[in-house]
Amino acid sequence: MDLLVKTQDSWTTQPQFNISSEGGQTSYSAGFEEINLLGYGKDVSYFYKKKPEGVGHLVGYNDPQFLNTRLRLASSFEDNPTGNAQNVNLAQPFYSLTTRWSAGVPVAHSNSLQKVFEAGQQISQYDQEHLSLDPFVGWRVNNDPLNVIRLQLSYRYSEDVFRAQDVTLPGTLPSNKALSGPIAGASYVQSDFIKETFADKTGRVEDINLGHETNAGVGYVARKYGATENSIPISANDSFGFGGNGEWFGLVSYGMSSRYTLYSSGQTGGRMFNTIYFTNLNYYHHLLESFPMTAVVHAESAYLQHPDSDNVLSLGGDTGLRGFKVNSFTGNKSLLFNVENRFYYPKEVLHLAYVGGAVFVDAGQIQPQGLGFTKDDFHVDVGMGMRFGLTRSADGTVFRVDLAYAIGPVQQSNRWILSISSAQGFKRSGNTYSNFPSPASTQ
């Protein structure tokens, strides 16, 4: 038997400098991440962040084998001019498809400034304090290693307290809310992995599952548990792929999450609240074999029904519409289309990076409650940019510089928008609803 082994050199100590100028807002961060502290496999990081609001600091520590066990500890602590955040998660995850059980205790707390936008202009702002606690335990219930079924029980406690400022516009401050109660969930994972390069990363193998990954959950929230309402949270979502036998493949995801309010005093019963329906389609096509060139098509849509007042869909320079400012459009229904051709010089430059570029077209619209989609309300931009795939980075970071031009009638003063970021111009899912509570689980 002949065995061919390929290795990839990467630095464990990674100085990082990121500058992001998206949708007319510029920020940058500088710091370091050490992913093998003193040779023990621990991860420690520090970042200095400069945003339009001021300066912030972020410290993180992750331990993939806490106390030499399968437990994983992930933690981060951030302080910035508009608030602070603390996140700690100690858990034994399903670290493989054959893992029999998992358990954990994620805890998150934050104080943040929330801004309210309308027609691309900030009209109000308020302070929000958030606390969540979600202990869980899960089991694998079958023996098929390629078609895995899991069950999970958890207790979800989530509290949001909103405080008005002097500039808070009347009617824009959400009501305080708390959700508390047990949740039962089930998942199905079908193993059908393919290996791809030059998809979303450069020169780095990406493991992509074309099999179904399905999740469903239902819970019970009650005032007797400390909640502000009596309701049944529900969620369901699925993702799968197709193709993968040649030079192309596709990925699809769709789902929903909601809360069904029960009949009780002081609330409207028999109704779905804070409901989101979403779907995403991604298509990747390697156009040339000898020269890394990949065409990427993304389509996304989301719809909010009776949302909580602090939840809204947003479209702009940081959510896939690169020719427009951040939060240019807000509403309860969204459409987004992206077409991008990425290409790279096939050899590393100085053994540090793959250098390339991209040309792209973005189009999308968001409509408020009561208005439907129209062809005249589509906002379009075209552009081109540079791509730098950092081959010594442990996660295969892609650094991009894009210049986009807004087509048609615009309300902003400048049609040209420069975007600089350490991530692709759009994600595979959740661009317009990135600020909505995770639709992958019950709320």
Summarize this structure briefly.
This protein is mainly beta and 443 residues long. It has strands spanning 13-22, 25-37, 42-51, 54-63, 72-80, 83-92, 101-118, 121-133, 136-140, 147-164, 177-190, 193-196, 206-209, 213-219, 231-243, 248-261, 271-288, 293-305, 313-315, 329-331, 333-344, 353-367, 379-390, 398-407, 416-421.
Structure explained in plain terms:
The chain has 443 residues and is mostly beta strands. The protein contains no helices and 25 strands. The protein has strands spanning 13-22, 25-37, 42-51, 54-63, 72-80, 83-92, 101-118, 121-133, 136-140, 147-164, 177-190, 193-196, 206-209, 213-219, 231-243, 248-261, 271-288, 293-305, 313-315, 329-331, 333-344, 353-367, 379-390, 398-407, 416-421. The strands form three sheets. The chain has a 21-stranded antiparallel sheet that branches. The mean pLDDT is 89.
Question: What topology does this entry show?
Answer:
Layout (H helix, E strand, L loop, with lengths): L12 E10 L2 E13 L4 E10 L2 E10 L8 E9 L2 E10 L8 E18 L2 E13 L2 E5 L6 E18 L12 E14 L2 E4 L9 E4 L3 E7 L11 E13 L4 E14 L9 E18 L4 E13 L7 E3 L13 E3 L1 E12 L8 E15 L11 E12 L7 E10 L8 E6 L22
Antiparallel strand pairs: 1-2, 2-3, 3-4, 4-5, 5-6, 6-7, 7-8, 7-9, 8-10, 9-10, 10-11, 11-14, 12-13, 14-15, 15-16, 16-17, 17-18, 18-21, 19-20, 21-22, 22-23, 23-24, 24-25
